[in-house]
Write a structure and sequence with these properties.
Helix 1 runs parallel beside helix 9 and helix 2 packs across helix 3. The two termini are 15 Å apart. It is globular and about 55 Å long. Helices cover 37% and strands 20% of the residues. It folds into two domains: 134 residues, 3-Layer(aba) Sandwich (Rossmann fold), CATH 3.40.50.1000; 97 residues, Eukaryotic phosphomannomutase, cap domain (Hypothetical Protein, Haloacid Dehalogenase-like Hydrolase, Chain: A, domain 2), CATH 3.30.1240. It is α/β, with parallel strands linked by helices and 258 residues long. The model has no long low-confidence stretch (mean pLDDT 92). It is built from nine helices and eleven strands. The chain has a seven-stranded mixed beta sheet. It has a four-stranded antiparallel beta sheet with strand order 6-7-9-8. This is Phosphomannomutase.
Length: 258
């Protein structure tokens, strides 16, 4: 790994940054990330669990073992599950933190809200329990890609997720939770401070940290790490935009220094 810029790491969101939403990384983008890794330390920080990240970022082998070796750092569930050089270095548990009774109260209220929600279609898996968070989807995560796309358009007009988040934030303000909208159909629920900045605790050896993400606006799941005083934030609009910005910031600079 000679030739890497010392003391610098580049972190990437997944959906909308390295891949199209819930799609697999393209061969072209995968090759670009391998080329980039030759000149900078590379990390991935996603809200999804490791299985979903592996499905999107893996090569032909989509096993978890493969993806954690393809990048220097892989932070699943915002960093609640953290890997460095293929080895697990940290894990946090939402259930233990919140307690069973409070967790049940939150889940029951959320399911009642979704049951009363009048939207064009509903499918299944409205709440997905992860190690470090709950992922809530008003339409249900079992919807097809076409249904995802249609819900995303519907949500932009009717603000289904943002209205639901406002209700939950007020109802459960005593639990000090963060509600973060991401992807096309869902939002994440986790304790305050368990956003993507959580992963930064593992990066004390890097005085310069760059982060690339598409949902960097307030309320988006990239906002906190984008705004962090510890990072240099970059807003992107697509994987192609990510690659172009990285070429400008890192590959062109490396070529100029050669």
């Amino acid at each position: 790994m000679t030739g890497r810029m010392p003391g610098l790491i580049v972190l990437f969101d997944v959906d909308g940054t390295l891949t199209a939403p819930r799609k697999a990384i393209t061969p072209k983008m995968l090759q670009f990330m391998q080329d980039l890794r030759k000149v900078v330390t590379v990390g991935v920080v996603g809200g999804s669990d490791l299985v979903k990240i592996s499905e999107q970022l893996g090569k032909s082998d989509t096993s978890c073992c493969a993806v954690i070796s393809d990048y220097d750092y892989v932070f699943a569930e915002n960093g609640l599950v953290a890997y460095k050089n293929g080895e697990l270095i940290g894990k946090q548990n939402f259930k233990s933190f919140l307690g069973e009774e409070k967790l049940k109260e939150l889940i029951n209220f959320t399911l009642h809200y979704i049951a009363d929600l009048d939207i064009p279609i509903k499918r299944g898996t409205f709440i997905e329990f992860r190690s470090g968070m709950l992922n809530v989807s008003p339409i249900g995560r079992n919807c097809s890609q076409e249904e995802r796309d249609e819900f995303e358009k519907y949500d932009k007009v009717h603000n289904i997720r943002s209205k639901m988040v406002s209700v939950l934030r007020e109802k459960f303000k005593h639990l000090n939770l963060t509600f973060s909208i991401g992807g096309q159909i869902s939002f994440d629920v986790f304790p305050q401070g368990w956003d993507k900045t959580y992963c930064l605790r593992y990066l004390e050896d890097f005085p310069e940290i760059h982060f690339f993400g598409d949902k960097t606006y307030k309320g988006g799941n990239d906002y906190e790490i984008y705004e962090s005083e510890r990072t240099v934030g970059h807003t992107v609009t697509s994987p192609d935009d990510t690659a172009e910005q990285c070429k400008l910031h890192f590959l062109a600079k490396q070529a100029g220094d050669a």
